[in-house]
Please model this.
Amino acid sequence: MTSPVSPTDQATSGLSIRQGDRIVVTGAAGFIGSAVVRCLLARGAEVLALVEPGGDERNLSGLDLERAALDVRDAEGLTTACADARFIFHLAALYRFWAKRPRDFYDINVGGTLNVLEAARRGSCERVIYTSTVGVLGLDGAARGRPADETCYADVAHLFGLYKRTKYVAEHEVLRAVAQGTPVSLVLPTFPLGPGDRRPTPTGKLVLEFLNGRVPAFVDTTLNVVHVDDLATGHLLALERGVVGRSYIIGGENMAMGSFLSALARCTDLPTPRIQVPRGIALTVGVLSQLVEGGLLRREPNVALESARMSTTNMMFSDQRARDELGHSPRPASEALIDSARWFVENGYVNEKRGQRIRFSTPS
Model:
């Protein structure tokens, strides 16, 4: 009689993506999700791209795949969609710093994840790759110049904002499912840049605000920049080489904000912001924006409080585990910067006057 396969055994079973494998990707039209889809298609997989009903699907234009509009809150629909999937990549999430209905963060980020896990259990799925966030990690060491890694636990009192809180709860549920036998590996992206950032994400918004001349000053902080295509490759590496129940930071280069803006200026031939403002001012702006725009006017704040808090926190991360165990090898951050800037310009996000001043070159 064959003995049952434990999660540890599954982790060393040598999974690989084969030609014709049916793979489900949630959040497939998003910035990271669409990059993962392109990587899977390049490997010959048959992708079922699950997209938000009524959402922007332009990132999937021209790709040879099956597409279905399905809300991750639809448990029955997910079970049907995932029934014959060999692998599931779960990237769908509400990634914002504000929403008119705060409950949506829990329903999508936690409830949607539970639905995916249940669909995986009911189907023939061999591995789930869950996209978490470095926002669930503790940053006490980073405040003193030591990059955070997967072992750094968060003080829950410092999980500001519903996005981080719900992703923290969702990760707990993922690990609970792993303990009960569901084969899941976790990817923790840092701050991706590159083509296809249509919303844009908070990091992409920083690039875009710079291109449009709306970054007259900056706060002394640190970001870990990774190209979105390297992040997508990292998801596939986590599937094929990762351990069940193990988390992997998929990151790139730690850059002080001043260095980030200087590199962006060099690759676009635009002036570098020189004024550095105290962190307290940035937090004050975030508080006022949240109260007036978010609270009184019931619209998304221009500077959400969580965004302001993020801008005043040293977000240094080490991706050494992914490099050692998965073979993760990201390109220089300068390439992510120029690819991001070029995409924003070519897709009409930059005002004409500023666009005429930009001259692209690869920063040294």
Q: What stands out?
A: The chain has a mean pLDDT of 88. The radius of gyration is 20 Å. The domain at 21-192+225-251+317-330 is CATH 3.40.50.720 (Rossmann fold). The first strand starts at residue 22 and ends at 26.
